Amino acid sequence: MSTRGKMGSATPVADVDPYSHESSAAALARLISLVDIQARVVRNYEALSLSRHIYERALSAGRLGVWQCDLSTETLSWSSGTYDIFDLPRMSPLVRKQALLCYPAHSLKALEAIRTPAIKRRQSFTLDAEIVTPKGKRRWIRIAAGVECAGDRVIGLFGIKQDITEERLQSERQHYFATVDELTNLANGNQFQARLAEACKARAEGIGGFLLLINLDHFKDVNDALGHAVGDLCLKEAAQRLAEACGDAAVVARLSGDDFAVLLHPESSITHVNGTAARVVRTMGRPFDCGGHMFKIGASIGITAIDGCTPDEASQRANAALATAKAGGRSTYRWCTAGAA
User: Fold this and answer.
1) Considering only CA atoms, which of 157, 78, 76, 71 is closest in space to residue 122?
2) What global pTM score does this model have?
3) Considering only the top CATH level, what class is 180-336?
4) What is the DSSP letter of 8?
5) What region holds the GGDEF domain (predicted)?
6) Among the options 163, 181, 217, 258, which is catalytic?
7) Lower CB count within 10 Å: N or C terminus of the chain?
8) Is 258 part of the annotated catalytic residue set?
9) Which residues in 170-197 are b (16+ Cβ under 10 Å) and which e?
10) Residue 299: is its pLDDT beyond 80?
11) How does the average pLDDT of the chain come out, rounded?
Protein backbone atom coordinates (compact mmCIF):
# COMPACT_ATOMS: atom_id res chain seq x y z
CA MET A 1 0.00 0.00 0.00
CA SER A 2 1.04 3.67 -0.28
CA THR A 3 0.18 7.09 1.21
CA ARG A 4 0.26 10.48 -0.43
CA GLY A 5 2.35 13.21 1.17
CA LYS A 6 1.63 16.89 1.51
CA MET A 7 3.30 17.63 -1.85
CA GLY A 8 1.00 15.07 -3.44
CA SER A 9 3.88 12.74 -4.27
CA ALA A 10 3.63 8.98 -3.59
CA THR A 11 5.92 7.58 -0.90
CA PRO A 12 6.42 3.77 -0.89
CA VAL A 13 5.91 2.03 2.43
CA ALA A 14 7.14 -1.47 3.26
CA ASP A 15 4.51 -4.12 3.26
CA VAL A 16 5.94 -5.50 6.51
CA ASP A 17 6.96 -3.32 9.40
CA PRO A 18 10.71 -3.81 9.89
CA TYR A 19 10.11 -3.68 13.59
CA SER A 20 7.37 -6.28 13.54
CA HIS A 21 7.68 -9.59 15.47
CA GLU A 22 8.24 -11.61 12.26
CA SER A 23 11.11 -9.41 11.02
CA SER A 24 12.86 -9.46 14.39
CA ALA A 25 12.68 -13.26 14.46
CA ALA A 26 14.25 -13.49 11.00
CA ALA A 27 16.99 -11.08 11.97
CA LEU A 28 17.66 -13.07 15.12
CA ALA A 29 17.80 -16.27 13.09
CA ARG A 30 20.29 -14.69 10.70
CA LEU A 31 22.34 -13.47 13.66
CA ILE A 32 22.31 -16.91 15.26
CA SER A 33 23.37 -18.40 11.93
CA LEU A 34 26.27 -15.97 11.66
CA VAL A 35 27.33 -16.72 15.24
CA ASP A 36 27.15 -20.44 14.50
CA ILE A 37 29.30 -20.01 11.37
CA GLN A 38 31.81 -17.97 13.33
CA ALA A 39 31.89 -20.61 16.08
CA ARG A 40 32.51 -23.32 13.49
CA VAL A 41 35.33 -21.27 11.98
CA VAL A 42 36.87 -20.84 15.43
CA ARG A 43 36.49 -24.55 16.17
CA ASN A 44 38.02 -25.47 12.81
CA TYR A 45 40.89 -23.06 13.40
CA GLU A 46 41.45 -24.49 16.86
CA ALA A 47 41.28 -28.02 15.47
CA LEU A 48 43.75 -27.05 12.75
CA SER A 49 46.06 -25.50 15.32
CA LEU A 50 45.74 -28.60 17.50
CA SER A 51 46.43 -30.83 14.49
CA ARG A 52 49.48 -28.76 13.62
CA HIS A 53 50.65 -28.95 17.24
CA ILE A 54 50.18 -32.74 17.31
CA TYR A 55 51.88 -32.97 13.90
CA GLU A 56 54.87 -30.99 15.14
CA ARG A 57 55.05 -33.10 18.32
CA ALA A 58 54.88 -36.31 16.30
CA LEU A 59 57.70 -35.13 14.04
CA SER A 60 59.74 -34.11 17.08
CA ALA A 61 59.17 -37.49 18.75
CA GLY A 62 60.54 -39.18 15.63
CA ARG A 63 63.40 -36.65 15.40
CA LEU A 64 61.96 -35.61 12.05
CA GLY A 65 61.64 -32.29 10.28
CA VAL A 66 59.90 -31.21 7.07
CA TRP A 67 61.72 -28.94 4.63
CA GLN A 68 61.26 -27.21 1.30
CA CYS A 69 63.70 -25.38 -0.97
CA ASP A 70 62.70 -22.84 -3.62
CA LEU A 71 65.29 -23.36 -6.35
CA SER A 72 64.82 -19.91 -7.86
CA THR A 73 65.74 -18.08 -4.63
CA GLU A 74 67.42 -20.88 -2.64
CA THR A 75 65.04 -19.93 0.19
CA LEU A 76 64.35 -22.67 2.73
CA SER A 77 61.11 -23.40 4.56
CA TRP A 78 61.57 -25.62 7.60
CA SER A 79 59.32 -27.08 10.25
CA SER A 80 60.28 -26.67 13.89
CA GLY A 81 61.80 -30.14 13.94
CA THR A 82 64.25 -29.29 11.18
CA TYR A 83 65.40 -26.16 13.02
CA ASP A 84 65.91 -28.29 16.15
CA ILE A 85 68.02 -30.86 14.28
CA PHE A 86 70.34 -28.07 13.10
CA ASP A 87 70.28 -26.23 16.46
CA LEU A 88 69.00 -23.07 14.77
CA PRO A 89 66.34 -20.65 16.13
CA ARG A 90 62.87 -21.72 15.08
CA MET A 91 61.21 -19.74 12.30
CA SER A 92 64.35 -17.71 11.56
CA PRO A 93 64.63 -16.85 7.84
CA LEU A 94 67.02 -19.12 5.99
CA VAL A 95 68.70 -19.50 2.64
CA ARG A 96 70.41 -22.69 1.56
CA LYS A 97 73.99 -21.41 1.83
CA GLN A 98 73.46 -20.83 5.57
CA ALA A 99 72.37 -24.42 6.12
CA LEU A 100 75.28 -25.74 4.05
CA LEU A 101 77.71 -24.23 6.58
CA CYS A 102 76.70 -27.11 8.86
CA TYR A 103 77.93 -29.74 6.39
CA PRO A 104 81.59 -30.88 6.62
CA ALA A 105 83.43 -31.11 3.31
CA HIS A 106 82.84 -34.85 2.86
CA SER A 107 79.11 -34.53 3.52
CA LEU A 108 78.78 -31.50 1.25
CA LYS A 109 80.55 -33.36 -1.55
CA ALA A 110 78.25 -36.36 -1.15
CA LEU A 111 75.16 -34.12 -1.08
CA GLU A 112 76.05 -32.24 -4.25
CA ALA A 113 77.00 -35.48 -6.02
CA ILE A 114 73.49 -36.85 -5.56
CA ARG A 115 71.40 -33.65 -5.54
CA THR A 116 72.46 -32.13 -8.88
CA PRO A 117 71.79 -35.28 -10.99
CA ALA A 118 68.48 -35.82 -9.14
CA ILE A 119 67.28 -32.33 -10.13
CA LYS A 120 68.28 -32.88 -13.75
CA ARG A 121 66.52 -36.23 -13.89
CA ARG A 122 63.58 -35.11 -11.71
CA GLN A 123 64.16 -38.01 -9.39
CA SER A 124 63.79 -38.29 -5.65
CA PHE A 125 66.81 -39.25 -3.56
CA THR A 126 67.91 -40.20 -0.06
CA LEU A 127 71.23 -39.56 1.64
CA ASP A 128 72.77 -40.12 5.07
CA ALA A 129 75.05 -37.18 5.90
CA GLU A 130 77.00 -35.87 8.86
CA ILE A 131 76.44 -32.30 10.06
CA VAL A 132 78.05 -30.11 12.71
CA THR A 133 75.57 -27.69 14.28
CA PRO A 134 76.44 -24.10 15.31
CA LYS A 135 76.63 -25.45 18.88
CA GLY A 136 79.40 -27.84 17.81
CA LYS A 137 77.27 -30.99 18.01
CA ARG A 138 77.98 -33.69 15.45
CA ARG A 139 74.88 -35.39 14.13
CA TRP A 140 73.96 -37.78 11.36
CA ILE A 141 70.83 -36.97 9.37
CA ARG A 142 68.88 -38.88 6.75
CA ILE A 143 67.67 -36.65 3.92
CA ALA A 144 64.67 -37.80 1.86
CA ALA A 145 63.95 -35.45 -1.04
CA GLY A 146 61.33 -35.17 -3.75
CA VAL A 147 61.33 -32.91 -6.81
CA GLU A 148 58.58 -30.31 -7.32
CA CYS A 149 57.82 -29.37 -10.93
CA ALA A 150 55.67 -26.77 -12.66
CA GLY A 151 55.11 -28.03 -16.16
CA ASP A 152 58.51 -28.77 -17.66
CA ARG A 153 60.38 -26.77 -15.04
CA VAL A 154 61.80 -27.97 -11.74
CA ILE A 155 60.93 -25.29 -9.17
CA GLY A 156 61.86 -26.82 -5.86
CA LEU A 157 62.79 -29.69 -3.62
CA PHE A 158 60.89 -30.89 -0.57
CA GLY A 159 61.09 -33.71 1.89
CA ILE A 160 62.04 -34.87 5.35
CA LYS A 161 65.21 -34.69 7.40
CA GLN A 162 65.61 -37.16 10.27
CA ASP A 163 68.15 -37.20 13.07
CA ILE A 164 69.64 -40.71 12.87
CA THR A 165 72.57 -40.08 15.22
CA GLU A 166 71.49 -42.73 17.72
CA GLU A 167 70.80 -45.21 14.94
CA ARG A 168 74.23 -44.53 13.48
CA LEU A 169 75.98 -44.91 16.84
CA GLN A 170 74.12 -48.14 17.51
CA SER A 171 75.15 -49.46 14.10
CA GLU A 172 78.77 -48.48 14.74
CA ARG A 173 78.67 -50.20 18.14
CA GLN A 174 77.25 -53.36 16.58
CA HIS A 175 79.90 -53.26 13.86
CA TYR A 176 82.61 -52.69 16.48
CA PHE A 177 81.61 -55.68 18.59
CA ALA A 178 81.15 -57.80 15.46
CA THR A 179 84.64 -57.04 14.15
CA VAL A 180 86.81 -56.06 17.14
CA ASP A 181 88.16 -58.22 19.96
CA GLU A 182 86.72 -56.72 23.13
CA LEU A 183 89.67 -57.62 25.35
CA THR A 184 92.56 -56.40 23.18
CA ASN A 185 90.86 -53.96 20.73
CA LEU A 186 92.55 -55.78 17.86
CA ALA A 187 90.55 -57.09 14.92
CA ASN A 188 88.70 -60.26 15.88
CA GLY A 189 88.44 -63.57 14.07
CA ASN A 190 85.44 -62.47 12.00
CA GLN A 191 87.21 -59.42 10.64
CA PHE A 192 90.41 -61.37 10.04
CA GLN A 193 88.65 -64.09 8.05
CA ALA A 194 86.91 -61.46 5.91
CA ARG A 195 90.18 -59.66 5.22
CA LEU A 196 91.98 -62.91 4.46
CA ALA A 197 89.21 -63.85 1.99
CA GLU A 198 89.58 -60.44 0.34
CA ALA A 199 93.34 -60.91 -0.01
CA CYS A 200 92.90 -64.36 -1.55
CA LYS A 201 90.17 -63.16 -3.92
CA ALA A 202 92.07 -60.04 -4.98
CA ARG A 203 95.04 -62.11 -6.03
CA ALA A 204 93.76 -65.39 -7.33
CA GLU A 205 97.11 -65.55 -9.12
CA GLY A 206 100.44 -64.21 -7.92
CA ILE A 207 101.30 -62.93 -4.46
CA GLY A 208 98.37 -61.47 -2.51
CA GLY A 209 100.24 -60.70 0.66
CA PHE A 210 101.64 -62.67 3.58
CA LEU A 211 100.01 -64.40 6.51
CA LEU A 212 101.65 -64.74 9.94
CA LEU A 213 100.02 -66.96 12.57
CA ILE A 214 101.36 -66.31 16.08
CA ASN A 215 100.99 -68.30 19.28
CA LEU A 216 102.26 -67.16 22.67
CA ASP A 217 104.75 -69.58 24.21
CA HIS A 218 104.11 -70.66 27.83
CA PHE A 219 101.00 -68.46 28.16
CA LYS A 220 98.95 -71.38 29.49
CA ASP A 221 101.44 -71.84 32.34
CA VAL A 222 101.07 -68.18 33.32
CA ASN A 223 97.28 -68.29 33.08
CA ASP A 224 97.06 -71.47 35.20
CA ALA A 225 99.55 -70.30 37.83
CA LEU A 226 98.53 -66.63 38.23
CA GLY A 227 94.86 -66.71 37.25
CA HIS A 228 92.70 -65.39 34.44
CA ALA A 229 92.89 -61.76 35.56
CA VAL A 230 96.68 -61.73 35.14
CA GLY A 231 96.27 -63.78 31.96
CA ASP A 232 93.98 -61.12 30.51
CA LEU A 233 96.49 -58.40 31.39
CA CYS A 234 99.17 -60.43 29.66
CA LEU A 235 97.03 -60.76 26.51
CA LYS A 236 96.38 -57.00 26.45
CA GLU A 237 100.09 -56.25 26.78
CA ALA A 238 100.96 -58.83 24.12
CA ALA A 239 98.38 -57.33 21.77
CA GLN A 240 99.83 -53.85 22.22
CA ARG A 241 103.36 -55.07 21.58
CA LEU A 242 102.21 -56.98 18.50
CA ALA A 243 100.42 -53.94 17.07
CA GLU A 244 103.51 -51.79 17.59
CA ALA A 245 105.81 -54.37 16.00
CA CYS A 246 103.50 -54.70 12.96
CA GLY A 247 102.53 -51.05 12.58
CA ASP A 248 102.33 -51.14 8.78
CA ALA A 249 100.35 -54.41 8.58
CA ALA A 250 97.08 -54.68 6.69
CA VAL A 251 95.43 -56.19 9.75
CA VAL A 252 96.50 -57.41 13.21
CA ALA A 253 94.01 -59.73 14.89
CA ARG A 254 93.42 -61.88 17.93
CA LEU A 255 91.82 -65.10 16.79
CA SER A 256 91.12 -66.75 20.14
CA GLY A 257 92.89 -67.44 23.40
CA ASP A 258 96.61 -66.78 22.84
CA ASP A 259 96.42 -67.13 19.04
CA PHE A 260 97.03 -64.03 16.90
CA ALA A 261 97.31 -63.36 13.17
CA VAL A 262 98.86 -60.69 10.97
CA LEU A 263 98.28 -59.91 7.29
CA LEU A 264 101.07 -58.04 5.52
CA HIS A 265 100.52 -56.11 2.29
CA PRO A 266 101.36 -57.66 -1.12
CA GLU A 267 104.12 -55.12 -1.73
CA SER A 268 106.01 -56.31 1.35
CA SER A 269 109.38 -57.80 0.49
CA ILE A 270 110.63 -61.08 1.93
CA THR A 271 113.18 -59.07 3.90
CA HIS A 272 110.39 -56.93 5.35
CA VAL A 273 108.34 -60.00 6.29
CA ASN A 274 111.32 -61.61 8.02
CA GLY A 275 112.09 -58.34 9.81
CA THR A 276 108.52 -58.07 11.08
CA ALA A 277 108.54 -61.64 12.38
CA ALA A 278 111.89 -61.09 14.10
CA ARG A 279 110.57 -57.93 15.80
CA VAL A 280 107.55 -59.82 17.11
CA VAL A 281 109.77 -62.57 18.54
CA ARG A 282 112.03 -60.03 20.22
CA THR A 283 109.23 -57.92 21.72
CA MET A 284 107.39 -60.97 23.06
CA GLY A 285 110.62 -62.21 24.61
CA ARG A 286 110.94 -59.17 26.87
CA PRO A 287 109.69 -59.63 30.48
CA PHE A 288 106.03 -58.91 31.22
CA ASP A 289 104.90 -57.02 34.34
CA CYS A 290 101.19 -57.72 34.84
CA GLY A 291 99.29 -57.23 38.09
CA GLY A 292 102.49 -57.02 40.07
CA HIS A 293 103.84 -60.26 38.63
CA MET A 294 107.01 -60.45 36.50
CA PHE A 295 107.33 -63.31 34.03
CA LYS A 296 108.55 -64.21 30.55
CA ILE A 297 106.66 -65.91 27.76
CA GLY A 298 107.55 -65.74 24.04
CA ALA A 299 106.03 -66.16 20.59
CA SER A 300 106.28 -68.71 17.80
CA ILE A 301 105.29 -67.73 14.26
CA GLY A 302 104.29 -69.54 11.08
CA ILE A 303 104.47 -67.65 7.80
CA THR A 304 103.09 -68.29 4.32
CA ALA A 305 102.64 -66.29 1.15
CA ILE A 306 99.11 -65.78 -0.15
CA ASP A 307 99.80 -66.91 -3.69
CA GLY A 308 96.51 -67.86 -5.29
CA CYS A 309 95.43 -70.14 -2.44
CA THR A 310 92.08 -70.23 -0.65
CA PRO A 311 91.74 -68.86 2.90
CA ASP A 312 91.64 -72.40 4.31
CA GLU A 313 94.78 -73.38 2.39
CA ALA A 314 96.62 -70.28 3.58
CA SER A 315 95.66 -71.00 7.21
CA GLN A 316 96.69 -74.66 6.93
CA ARG A 317 100.08 -73.74 5.53
CA ALA A 318 100.72 -71.07 8.17
CA ASN A 319 99.65 -73.50 10.91
CA ALA A 320 102.07 -76.11 9.55
CA ALA A 321 104.88 -73.55 9.68
CA LEU A 322 103.84 -72.59 13.22
CA ALA A 323 104.03 -76.24 14.31
CA THR A 324 107.52 -76.40 12.85
CA ALA A 325 108.54 -73.31 14.84
CA LYS A 326 107.16 -74.86 18.04
CA ALA A 327 109.00 -78.10 17.36
CA GLY A 328 112.20 -76.15 16.65
CA GLY A 329 112.42 -74.77 20.18
CA ARG A 330 109.79 -71.96 20.19
CA SER A 331 110.38 -68.20 20.17
CA THR A 332 111.21 -68.30 16.48
CA TYR A 333 109.52 -68.15 13.07
CA ARG A 334 109.33 -70.56 10.16
CA TRP A 335 108.09 -70.36 6.56
CA CYS A 336 105.82 -72.77 4.78
CA THR A 337 105.70 -72.98 0.99
CA ALA A 338 102.84 -74.25 -1.17
CA GLY A 339 102.27 -77.95 -0.71
CA ALA A 340 104.22 -78.15 2.52
CA ALA A 341 101.10 -78.33 4.63
Assistant:
1) 157
2) 0.64
3) alpha beta
4) S
5) 207-338
6) 258
7) N
8) yes
9) eeeeeeeeebbbeebebbbeebbbebbe
10) yes
11) 86
